[in-house]
Specification:
By secondary structure, the chain is mostly helical. 77% of the residues lie in helices and 0% in strands. The chain contains 8 helices and no strands. One of its GO terms (molecular function) is metal ion binding.
Length: 239
């Protein structure tokens, strides 16, 4: 016969289990949203590789230029969307921290396991932990910048990258966010049974990491080249 203590403990266990399941779903949902956004974002950014005018028109489209009498977009939309993304990132991070090794002994145990057991998914999880730790500090800085100074364009973005030395942030942020997002999408697909082909999904994740790194670095290099040719004060680009 169950005692009151046993009943209370069982109830707490059920509540904790239900909360853990909801937290997993929210972590996965926010992770999918952020991962898909990154895929789109890096492709929009890479439009600079087709010239200043191409990037300019992409920016005007994203900022609602078609709704403006002058054809120019509304930078406020960038601030609003960046604020929304910051909230999503913080929610995702809060749920992800539940599984983050909090003690040095746990890190040592994980490293020890990786050296003894050659398990691909364990390595993927490890690099997600490392990249997630880096992103915890870098992503809010990037998004705060976009919230505070939302004006973007071929010249203004190049000014931020080159003259304001934002390339120092992006050169670390780019590999961390690409690795974290693509491996994260892989783990979500496996966890929720979207596909049972782990080997194929891992290969796809690795291909996407290399591909996104290439277009990201090429775009960053293009901004650096444009910025080096500009003189202060910077005038916004007009086609």
């Amino acid at each position: 016969m169950r005692t009151l203590t046993d009943t209370t403990a069982l109830f707490k266990q059920k509540v904790a289990s239900a909360w853990s399941a909801k937290a997993d779903r929210l972590q996965s949902a926010t992770g999918i949203l952020l991962g898909c956004f990154l895929l789109v974002h890096l492709h929009f950014e890479s439009s600079i590789l087709f010239g200043k005018e191409a990037f300019y028109h992409v920016v005007q489209f994203l900022e609602g230029g078609m709704f403006s009498e002058t054809g120019h977009g509304y930078p406020l939309l960038t601030s609003i969307f960046s604020t929304f993304l910051l909230v999503v990132v913080l929610v995702h991070a809060a749920f992800a921290l539940r599984r983050f090794p909090a003690q040095i002994g746990q890190w040592r145990a994980l490293r020890g396991q990786m050296q003894v057991v050659n398990h691909s998914d364990t390595r993927v999880w490890f690099w997600q932990l490392v990249s997630g730790f880096i992103l915890f500090f870098l992503v809010p800085v990037h998004l705060y910048t976009m919230i505070a100074t939302p004006e973007i364009g071929p010249h203004l973005s190049a000014e931020r990258v080159y003259h304001d030395n934002a390339w120092l942030l992006y050169i670390v942020l780019l590999p961390a966010v690409v690795v974290h997002a693509m491996f994260g999408l892989y783990r979500v697909a496996v966890k929720w049974g979207i596909s049972a082909n782990r080997t194929g999904l891992r290969k796809l994740a690795h291909i996407l990491v290399v591909y996104l790194m290439v277009i990201g670095l090429l775009s960053l290099g293009q901004y650096m080249m444009i910025g080096s040719e500009l003189t202060l004060p910077i005038e916004p680009f007009r086609p």
